[in-house]
Design a protein that fits this description.
The complex is a heterotetramer of chains A (162), B (590), C (597) and D (131). Chain B is of the alpha/beta class and 590 residues long. Chain B has 3 domains: 80 residues, Ubiquitin-like (UB roll) (Roll), CATH 3.10.20; 115 residues, Alpha-Beta Plaits; 359 residues, 3-Layer(aba) Sandwich (Rossmann fold). Helices cover 34% and strands 15% of the residues of chain B. In chain B, helix 16 links the parallel strand 21 and strand 22. The radius of gyration of chain B is 25 Å and the shape is globular. By secondary structure, chain C is α/β, with parallel strands linked by helices. Chain C has 5 domains: 108 residues, Glutaredoxin; 210 residues, NADH-ubiquinone oxidoreductase 51kDa subunit (Rossmann fold, 3-Layer(aba) Sandwich); 64 residues, Ubiquitin-like (UB roll); 88 residues, NADH-ubiquinone oxidoreductase 51kDa subunit, iron-sulphur binding domain (de novo design (two linked rop proteins)), CATH 1.20.1440; 56 residues, Alpha-Beta Plaits (2-Layer Sandwich). Helices cover 42% and strands 15% of the residues of chain D. Chain D is built from 4 helices and 4 strands; from the N terminus they run H-E-H-H-E-E-E-H. Chain D is elongated, with a radius of gyration of 17 Å. Classes of the chains: A alpha+beta (162), B alpha/beta (590), C alpha/beta (597), D alpha+beta (131). Chains in contact: A-B, A-C, B-C, C-D. At the A-C interface, helix 2 and helix 5 of A face helix 1, strand 10, strand 12, strand 16 and helix 17 of C.
């Protein structure tokens, strides 16, 4: 958790409050609100959680408790090209771990981290349901199937050139 | 309700439907060990997440073991609480907890009072088979409470107290799996949270994960310093509980022994917060009558009901959660702070000591008092009116450290002039007491008549929210009482939406009032202890010859010699305060 | 209305979409337009065909020609050759791995031959975004029948009689569950569809929702009718964007048609459905955790009783079934309980969908009658083990299940047989492993999953599984002892016996199953410090085969830690104490002179 | 779209819509339906196979006869084109030659509907063409 306070854009805060209102500021809708908030901001910094807490009248500790419970929510900004490696069983037995290691090696970051230039972030997914293509890697919305460790360099290169 | 027959460890027992196996077993003196489970049944407070799995038992016909705290009995159920399977499972579970727990028992604040330690001892655990990674967290020290989260066993009692009972919401379970723990938002320090320092989390924590900030070392140094005059004040609830730390039955009054012990510890003056409680009644009662009379005279702008302000956790609570209502509570400072202000002015002058050389220490059943005496507005030139505050538990430790045989001490009296009090001051220690004390005085001042009976039974009890109407010689005065901040919140909401019309309200942050404070000897979930303490408080009141604050001769003298009259300018300066809006969150917006 | 002579079905399931099935449709449509065939040929985006291994799939009707691994570039040829000239594009046909012959009709493919598709009946057949296609295939007929011709108890009785059991893992009789929920009186009740499929390697629920959303919506309404609920909630993984999109479209269309909402089909029955999103927590597959999650809380399970049927969502009676269970319901009502119960085994009726994955030729989604043997599934439908390797084990039931071996291959699959064999049905993940898979590492993989997904509420799961994982980790690193094996077993039993919810109670299953079936492999790791499958990196050593080494020094120059030494043109040597087992030497060696032992 | 307000409504709509996927439904259960293959190699098309094919598809639907009409490549009877192969459920396939619209109509009414044989059968040692 970084202690650096970030500034939120007024328009984004307005949008977020709008989202809360659209759910009638119902505390029971916390998870739906968090989903929308993450769509707006890309991640859920503490400031965003504070806004949601006061709108929904849910203690911010509890908001944080919920955010840290679900792996889908993140408090660190994702890279411009978020890389997710499926580590479901089907991908595991077809060598996902080696692919993951290769990404770590190439990008010099660990799972959950973002490269210094903000370009790539690395995360793991549990089964995207494309087991026929195992091992599967997703970069943004694009899915790469049957990825071999040797392909990793090439894949990263296509994005580095963007 | 229908009864259910079952067998536990080959013994028949009949209990009402809805009873748990744990409760049914207790009925026939089978004590199944528990850890996360806690019930203060008289307060309707219960923690039953079924998470620790220490209380598992074998139920015939069931595939796996059943948590006895959460499993309700059924007709003909056959339960076994001590088979090899159960014992192996139980000790393995405790070993697992221990495997993720620091083994620094000898120097832990909870040593000897730790429920996990007792459990490990009772189960005869001699080694931890499953060793592995232990979780580590940053320690958090606030003015009142220390969080050593490494020792958290995820019983969730603190979380339940903070959220369900107190509705403060400073704590929540965070993360998941092995990394889950109870913490504050963003794992920041308590100081940055909405924590009121009520200390109820500390009161229920089974281990050393939540403890109070300890001032005994500092006190020992101050007592030894020949250049300092050290004055102590003791809150009313302390005398009703301190004895428990020395093996006395709950509810044993140890007022005299406590005074004797304090004197043996080396305090120069042993005074009583009860004196300041009487003073509080004078100020708060007068303020109440002032507002009331303006209201009765038709003044629409007057803020009613008046709310008591002697509980510091309650003050923190409304500053955080109801800042818009901060003109309603009485401006009277708490007895602790009134005492400090008078000690460092009136008394310091009297004995001719500069206030900076006078150390005022308080013994409180409370952890929020540690924070309260550090509030900037309660200091003159950086010198706090009350230097620091110790809990009942810390005092007990100190007495033990100083080789004092507490139980064989003679009963001694407090010193004067700040040691004299009436029964009204004593009952501040329990829920309903402050308002009863205020009523005794306000009634006589308002009506000019003497009360025939000073006991207002209608204001007493342990129900979370109570109300009563007192006849002030023809004028009905509506009084509301809430203890536990969750109940306070309900009462405040009802005032806000206009569904309740009270003239005066007493609020205490802790369930039971100060007798159940966060600094008291641990009740370990036994609410009969709280009841016994409450009874003791009323007994002490009854034993007093003077039972109304305005009859305290030293109070009368204080006004004559120093303050003038209640709400005088001097009284305002020394005995009243103002409140802050702490609800603002730091959210930067571009 | 144009009478199409051909329907070209293109799989729009997630797997095929990931391989650009959308591009295929665009290309097909473009060619159709170019050739002026708009009135003769219609393209349809359907749900998953199941045969994911060979996706993207394009199926041509009416002749049932099944084209595999189609690329957008193939579109032109398909239209020109197949549609215009009536000649099949042979190179796109499926080749039977045994006979090496092309198979044109999916009905003659081993993958489909043994399947009976009930839950998947419309997947790969209908356009899931078009309610009319569903209606034409009897969607909402069962609901209409229930509402007009049956009372709630009759519906429940029919479901009970069918023998349908929950497909989410527990196998609880569905009709009984409905009956309990119906009996609890309340002003408000809820029907919840559990679409938070969490098994890594199971994707049947997603495929049903993507391919046939209306069958689920209809079944939820039927369930609502039986229990007196007028509100349905679908709890779905946020990671399933396509399923979410199609569900939303389906709900909207059903509302527009008056098949959901107020006064359905004029019967006075109201029922509406909303979506709730999961956020990545496996434990939310457990119904109490799921309900807490829908209420905006941490998805921690709570002790039952009270069961959701008594006190569920917002404290109201709630019935939770999973997607596949619901998908079976409308067919049962239309075709009758007797028809349904004629399929399957004595105690497990109907079919089960499995996600077949791992080291198998035909990865995909299959639906087989209960009682089909593992051998049939793996070797007939699945086409056997990939690359001609040897079958070693099959993991069923995901992280909660166990590994079954050679000796279980002829076990007919049903709820009870799998349990008896030390595994479980789970939601239907079936991962096949070959000789290269280390079973200790496999158990560790599943425990890693459980540790990460444990909610942390109860001690055995929070700490116990972590300790299991640590012991397994030790063993795979060659640091395990025989005592560790005993400890693994004891701890596993205690966790099973004491954990709070199904996730915790079943989490040691992979450990126990591998201990039971592959004890030798554990012994090899612990005593011989060897990994027989050659999968545990720490137990492998690289050696130079002296006869093969020509002393070219390529390996020595590439070694990042300089642990290879030797004279030029002389056999080299690897210093085992310094080797970091990176494998570079093996990669660089052109003479096969490096081996792993 | 008007709302469906009764089960009968739903059934009616279903019947109306069924045409749209009849082709798919029929393909699902080929063994229980008449199967008609039209030889549509270049020579077949030149001799009018396309018209026959269209006629069969449309007329069978109009006359509410469930059948699967597909096209196939060269059947090997170029002398008799256009040729069609008709397989009734449970019967061996029969090939008809010199099929024009009139002939096709006759085949539908007599053979497909009633199983009566029509002139023009090619009695060769016929082999089904399939990969």
């Amino acid at each position: 958790m970084s202690s650096v306070k970030i500034k939120l854009k007024k328009t984004d805060v307005d949008k977020l409050e709008e989202v809360c209102n659209s759910f009638n500021n119902d505390p029971g809708e916390l998870i739906n609100v968090l989903h929308k908030a993450q769509e707006i901001f890309g991640y859920l910094p503490s400031e965003v959680q504070e806004v949601i807490s006061s709108k929904l009248n849910v203690p911010v500790a509890k908001v944080y408790g919920v955010v840290t419970f679900y792996s889908f929510f993140t408090m660190t900004p994702k890279g411009r090209f978020p890389i997710s490696i499926c580590t479901g069983t089907a991908c595991y037995v077809r060598g996902a771990e080696k692919v993951l290691d290769e990404f770590k090696k190439e990008l010099k970051i660990e799972v959950g981290q973002t490269t210094a230039d903000g370009k790539f972030s690395l995360s793991c997914l549990r089964c995207v349901g494309a087991c026929g293509l195992a091992p599967v890697v997703m970069i943004g919305d694009k899915t790469y199937g049957r990825v071999a460790p040797d392909d990793v360099k090439e894949i990263i290169k296509t994005y580095n050139d963007l | 309700m229908e009864n259910i027959k079952l067998t536990i460890d080959n013994k028949q027992v009949e209990v009402p439907a809805g009873t748990t196996i744990l409760e049914a077993a207790k009925k026939i003196n089978i004590h199944i060990p528990t850890l996360c489970y806690m019930s203060l049944n008289d307060m309707h407070i219960e923690n039953k997440p079924g998470g620790c799995r220490v209380c598992v038992v074998e139920v015939e016909g069931r595939r796996n073991l059943a948590p006895s705290c959460a499993t309700q009995v059924t007709e003909g159920m056959v339960v076994k609480t001590n088979t090899v399977r159960v014992l192996n499972a139980r000790s393995t579970v405790v070993e697992l907890i221990l495997s993720d727990h620091p083994a620094d028992c000898l120097i832990c604040a909870k040593n000897g009072n730790c429920e996990l330690q007792t459990l490990a001892q009772d189960l005869g655990i001699r080694k931890i088979t499953y060793q592995g990674e232990q979780s580590t967290y940053r320690e958090d020290t606030s003015p009142s409470i220390i969080r050593d989260v490494d020792k958290c066993v995820m019983c969730r009692r603190c979380e339940m107290m903070c959220n369900e009972v107190q509705t403060v919401g400073a704590l929540s379970a965070i993360n998941r799996g092995f990394n889950s723990v109870v913490a504050t938002a963003f794992e920041q320090n308590l100081e940055k949270s909405t924590c009121t320092y009520c200390g109820q989390c500390v009161a229920v924590c089974p281990t050393g994960a939540l403890t109070e900030v300890d001032h005994t070392r500092q006190l020992i140094r101050d007592l030894a310093d020949p250049n300092k005059v050290v004055v102590v004040q003791t809150a009313p609830a302390v005398r009703a509980a301190l004895g428990e730390e020395f093996g006395n039955a709950p509810g044993t009054l140890v007022t005299g022994k406590m005074a004797a012990a304090l004197r043996r510890l080396g305090f120069d003056y042993v005074f009583d917060t009860d004196f300041a409680a009487d003073l509080t009644i004078m100020e708060e009662g007068t303020e109440l009558l002032g507002r009331l009379n303006r209201f009765l005279a038709g003044d629409k702008d007057v803020a009613l009901p008046i709310l008591t302000s002697c509980c510091p956790a309650w003050v923190n609570f409304f500053e955080h959660s109801f800042p818009e209502m901060r003109d309603i509570p009485s401006t009277a400072r708490s007895p602790q702070q009134m005492f400090g202000a008078i000690a460092k002015t009136y008394f310091a002058e009297k004995i001719g000591v500069h206030r900076k050389k006078l150390i005022v220490v308080s013994i409180m059943p409370c952890l929020a008092k540690k924070y309260e005496c550090q509030r900037e507005e309660f200091a003159t030139d950086g010198d706090p009116d009350v230097n620091y505050s110790l809990s009942t538990r810390e005092l007990a430790h100190l007495i033990k450290q100083s080789n004092i045989d507490f139980n064989h001490l003679p009963d001694e009296d407090f010193d004067n002039p700040l040691g004299e009090s009436t029964g009204a001051g004593v009952i501040f220690g329990t829920t309903g007491g402050v308002i009863e004390a205020a009523t005794r005085t306000a009634y006589e001042i308002q009506t000019g008549k003497t009360l025939k009976k000073v006991d207002f039974e209608e204001l007493r009890g342990l129900e979370g929210i109570r109300s009563a109407t007192i006849d002030f010689d023809g004028t009905p005065i509506n009084i509301g009482i809430a203890h536990g901040l969750g109940n306070a919140r309900k009462l405040l909401e009802s005032i806000k939406d206009g569904s309740n019309k009270f003239h005066a309200i007493e609020i205490m942050a802790c369930p039971g009032g100060c007798i159940g404070g966060g600094g008291q000897p641990f009740h370990h979930g036994d609410s009969s202890i709280l009841k016994a303490r409450q009874k003791a408080i009323y007994t002490e009141d009854e034993m007093k010859t003077l039972r109304k604050s305005h009859e305290n001769p030293y109070i009368i003298k204080l006004y004559e010699e120093f303050l003038g009259k209640p709400l005088s300018e001097k009284a305002h300066q020394l005995l009243h305060t103002h409140y802050f809006d702490k609800s603002k969150k730091e959210i930067f917006i571009d | 209305m144009a009478t199409y002579k051909y329907h070209l079905l293109v799989c729009g399931g997630t797997g095929c979409k990931a391989s650009n099935s959308e591009g295929i449709i665009t290309a097909l449509n473009r060619t159709i337009e170019e050739k002026g065939l708009e009135n003769d040929v219609k393209t349809v985006t359907t749900g998953c065909f199941g045969f994911c291994e060979k996706g993207p799939i394009v199926k041509i009707l009416p002749d049932n020609t099944f084209y595999t691994q189609v690329k957008p570039d193939d579109a032109k040829e398909i239209i020109e050759e197949h549609i215009i000239k009536g000649r099949k594009v042979t190179r796109l046909l499926y080749t039977d791995p045994e006979t090496k012959k092309h198979v044109s009709d999916s009905k003659h493919m081993g993958f489909y031959q043994k399947q009976i598709r009930i839950a998947l009946r419309n997947c790969g057949f209908l356009d899931p975004e078009n309610i009319e296609e569903s209606i034409s295939r009897d969607a909402y007929q069962a609901l209409g029948k229930a509402l007009t011709e049956m009372n709630p108890q009759q519906v429940i009785d029919e479901i009970k009689k069918s023998g349908l059991r929950g497909r989410g893992g527990g196998g609880f009789p569905t009709g009984l569950k409905w009956e309990i929920a119906a009996k609890n009186q309340a002003d408000q009740k809820y029907v919840v569809c559990n679409a938070d499929e969490g098994d890594p390697g199971a994707f049947m629920d997603r495929s049903i929702l993507e391919g046939d959303p209306h069958s689920v919506l209809e079944a939820m309404a039927i369930c609502g009718y039986t229990m007196g609920a007028n509100k349905g909630l679908i709890y779905i993984r946020a990671e399933y964007p396509l399923a979410i999109k199609r569900l939303k479209i389906a709900i909207k269309q059903a509302q527009e048609y008056g098949l959901l909402g107020h006064n359905i089909m004029g019967t006075g029955f109201d029922f509406d459905i909303e979506m709730r999103y999961g956020a990545g927590a496996f434990v939310c597959g457990e119904e109490t955790a799921l309900i807490h999650s829908m209420e905006g809380e941490r998805g921690e399970p709570t002790f039952k009783p009270p069961f959701p049927a008594q006190s569920g969502y917002k404290g109201k009676p709630t019935n939770v079934n999973n997607v596949e269970t619901f998908a079976n319901v409308p067919v049962i009502l239309l075709k009758g309980a007797e028809w349904f119960s004629s399929i399957g085994t004595e105690k497990s009726k109907g079919t089960k969908v499995f996600a077949l994955a791992g080291k198998i030729n035909n990865v995909g989604l299959i639906e087989v009658p209960m009682g089909t043997t593992l051998r049939e599934v793996i070797f007939e439908i699945g086409g056997g083990i990939k690359d001609g390797k040897k079958f070693k084990a099959v993991q069923t039931g995901g992280p909660s299940g166990g590994c079954l071996t050679e000796k279980h291959l002829d076990t007919p699959i049903d709820f009870d047989n799998l349990l008896a064999a030390g595994s479980m049905m789970g939601s239907g993940g079936m991962i096949v492993m070959d000789e290269d898979d280390c079973m200790v590492a496999m158990a560790k993989f599943f425990l890693d999953f459980t540790v990460e997904e444990s909610c942390g509420k109860c001690t055995p799961c929070r700490v116990g599984n972590k300790r299991l994982y640590e012991i397994l980790d030790k063993i795979t690193k060659g640091e395990g002892t025989l005592e560790d094996l005993d400890n693994l077993r004891n701890l596993s039993y205690v966790i099973k016996d004491t954990a709070l919810c199904g996730l915790g109670q079943t989490s040691p299953n992979p450990v126990l199953a591998t201990l039971d079936n592959f004890y030798d492999e554990y012994i090899a790791h612990v005593v011989d410090k060897k990994c027989p499958a050659g999968a545990c990196k720490d137990l492998m050593n690289y050696y130079v085969i002296e006869e093969n080494c020509v002393g070219c020094t390529a390996c020595a120059r590439a070694c990042p830690v300089n642990c290879i030494s030797g004279e030029r043109k002389m056999p080299h040597h690897i210093d085992q104490t310094a080797c970091i087992k990176c494998g570079t030497c093996m990669e660089k060696c052109k003479f096969n002179a490096i081996e792993i032992k | 779209m008007a709302k469906i307000t009764s089960l009968n409504d739903l059934r009616k709509i279903k019947d109306d819509l069924q045409e749209k996927i009849r082709l798919r439904e029929n393909a699902e259960s080929p063994d229980s339906l008449a199967q008609i293959k039209v030889g549509m190699a270049t020579s077949g098309i030149a001799s009018g196979a396309k018209e026959v094919f269209n006629f069969l598809v449309e007329e069978l639907q109009k006359r509410n006869i469930s059948a699967v009409v597909t096209q196939t490549g060269d059947m090997g009877y170029s002398y008799a084109e256009p040729t069609i192969e008709v397989t009734l459920p449970g019967k061996p396939p029969v090939v008809f030659g010199w099929v024009n619209i009139t002939k096709a109509d006759e085949i539908i009414e007599k053979y497909i509907r009633n199983g009566e044989l029509v002139e023009g059968i090619i009695p060769a040692n016929y082999k089904t063409i399939d990969e």
